[in-house]
Write a structure and sequence with these properties.
Elements (H helix, E strand, L loop, with lengths): L6 H21 L4 E5 L11 H14 L5 E6 L3 E2 L7 H13 L10 E2 H13 L4 E6 L5
Helix pairs in contact: 1-2
Length: 137
């Protein structure tokens, strides 16, 4: 959100662009769509970030794909080009506590997320699905 600079800019990038890609894909005959979403995505959320992610999932699912899968990672482990203090602190806490914290709050590696996205695209299952953070641990 901070990188985007405003809620409007965030919504444009995290809702508008992916929805337009979905519309174009569907218009050109794609039957499968896989989205990298976020833990807590929910149209009814009081948090703007989670509400935006939930609205995107809902609207993509309504485009009529034979298979739609939302992958919902939690805290993503791996290197980033930008420095995010809160994210680094959370990673340190989660790594320190290890198995003492609930599975849904554990680190999801970029490799596991990528595998779930690719598997869902290559071997689509008809219908609307989500892959939760607990399945990515």
């Amino acid at each position: 959100m901070r990188s985007a600079g405003s809620q409007d800019a965030f919504r444009k990038v995290d809702y508008g662009y992916p929805l337009e890609v979905g519309r174009l894909a569907r218009m050109h005959g794609a039957n499968t769509f896989v989205l990298n979403s976020a833990i807590g995505a929910d149209v009814g959320s009081r948090f703007f970030y989670n509400r935006t992610k939930g609205e995107l999932e809902r609207d993509l699912a309504n485009l009529g794909f034979q298979s739609f899968t939302a992958v919902r990672p939690g805290l993503i482990g791996g290197d980033r080009d930008e420095y995010r203090l809160a994210e680094r602190a959370a990673l340190l806490v989660v790594r320190t506590l290890g198995r003492a914290i609930p599975r849904r709050l554990r680190i999801n590696t970029a490799e596991r997320i990528a595998h779930a996205l690719l598997e869902s695209a290559i071997n689509p299952i008809p219908g609307i699905h989500s892959i939760e953070a607990t399945e990515l641990v």
